[in-house]
């Protein structure tokens, strides 16, 4: 079995009898070793002591007094978030249950990076054993913002952080990073558009995020995203769904939609109210979801598909919110894995 997404830290967890991942001291220690939590040179003695104590015993209780003793207000806030996040992971029966609690109840002020890291772990577990590189590349959308660009009439998605770095290194000022790589500009080095010829290389670079997704013209890329959504819902909610990519909605009596991001939600709300959406050309993906067993669905929506809408923002960034696929479905009750 080929390894992927080592940076998720899944090897620092253990799998419980329920199939979900369980936090370990080693996982928390990996978080403590991140640059955001390593005490800087100017850190006070209290912060250094707190960090050292947690590295020695990652699950030890942390009192309000310990946090209050930190001299730097930003450090106090960062550590308060970390301790809250640590407690959530420690106390939940599984990381999946922790994610469900955050998705349904709100992130409770946690920085988005923490929710993304938890999503990364949970999705890595859901995709265990996956041998489809198109699915794995699509899975990156769940926890990594994407930069969108059009080239020869087709929509490409590249990892936003990687593209930004490539752009900073580029000499050309008249090309976008993804267009430049298509034109073989050397500054964009190891970025490649995934296809059947190079897909096998994904496993060796899965943590580098250097493969571009051709979501506009490659049906396998679109199907890969559909299959990941199916796996995500099945893993977290125990529901079997079928997701189909669409070119347009031809249903004149559509009843429910899920915005895969804030922009998609705006477009769906406009369509729902009978208005023309302000930025319909920003749509990245449109899909239809149906349930294999509709007993968990609200009675008035049984027999009706759920439409999924994803769209980029004005900076051509697509930030998929996988929590919407948990909290936004029309279910009778809170289904959990």
Shape: globular
| Proportion of helical residues | 25-40%
Distance between the termini: 25 Å
Judged by helices, strands and strand pairing, the structural class is alpha+beta
What's the count of strands? 11
Total tally of structural domains:
3
Ranges with pLDDT <50 over ≥5 residues?
Answer: 184-189
Give the number of helices: 12
Overall mean pLDDT stands at 89
Largest sheet: 4 strands, mixed
General description of the model:
This protein has 337 residues and is α+β, with helices and mostly antiparallel strands. It has three domains: 121 residues, no CATH class; 80 residues, no CATH class; 89 residues, no CATH class. Strands 7-9-10-8 form a four-stranded mixed sheet, with helices on both faces. Strands 4-3-11 form a three-stranded antiparallel sheet. Strand 1 and strand 2 form a beta hairpin. Helix 5 crosses helix 6. The longest helix is centred in the N-terminal third of the chain and has 19 residues. It is globular. About 2% of the residues have low confidence.
Please tag this protein with its features:
3-stranded antiparallel sheet, 11 strands, 38% helix, 337 residues, alpha+beta, single chain, 3 domains
């Amino acid at each position: 079995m080929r390894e992927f997404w080592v940076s998720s830290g899944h090897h620092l967890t253990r799998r419980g009898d329920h199939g979900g991942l369980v936090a370990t001291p080693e996982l928390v220690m990996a978080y403590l070793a991140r640059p955001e939590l390593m005490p800087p040179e100017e850190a006070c003695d209290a912060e250094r002591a707190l960090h050292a104590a947690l590295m020695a015993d990652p699950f030890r209780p942390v009192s309000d007094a310990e946090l209050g003793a930190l001299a730097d207000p930003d450090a106090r806030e960062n550590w308060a978030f970390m301790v809250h996040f640590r407690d959530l992971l420690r106390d939940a029966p599984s990381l999946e249950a922790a994610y469900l609690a955050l998705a349904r109840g709100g992130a409770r002020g946690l920085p988005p990076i923490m929710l993304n890291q938890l999503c990364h772990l949970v999705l890595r577990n859901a995709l265990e054993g996956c041998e489809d590189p198109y699915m794995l590349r699509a899975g990156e959308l769940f926890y990594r913002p994407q930069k969108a660009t059009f080239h020869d009439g087709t929509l490409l998605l590249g990892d936003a952080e990687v593209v930004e770095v490539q752009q900073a290194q580029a000499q050309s000022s008249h090309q976008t990073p993804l267009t430049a790589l298509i034109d073989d500009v050397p500054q964009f080095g190891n970025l490649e558009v995934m296809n059947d010829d190079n897909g096998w290389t994904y496993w060796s670079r899965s943590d580098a995020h250097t493969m571009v997704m051709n979501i506009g013209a490659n049906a396998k890329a679109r199907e890969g995203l559909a299959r990941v959504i199916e796996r995500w819902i099945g893993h977290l909610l125990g529901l079997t769904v079928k997701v189909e990519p669409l070119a347009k909605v031809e249903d004149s009596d559509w009843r429910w939609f899920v915005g895969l991001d804030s922009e998609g939600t705006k477009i769906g709300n406009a369509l729902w109210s009978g208005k023309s959406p302000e930025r319909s050309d920003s749509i990245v993906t449109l899909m239809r979801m149906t349930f294999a067993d509709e007993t968990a669905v609200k009675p008035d929506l049984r027999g009706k598909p759920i439409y999924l809408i994803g769209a980029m923002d004005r900076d051509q960034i697509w930030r998929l919110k996988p929590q919407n696929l948990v909290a936004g479905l029309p279910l009778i009750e809170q289904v959990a894995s």
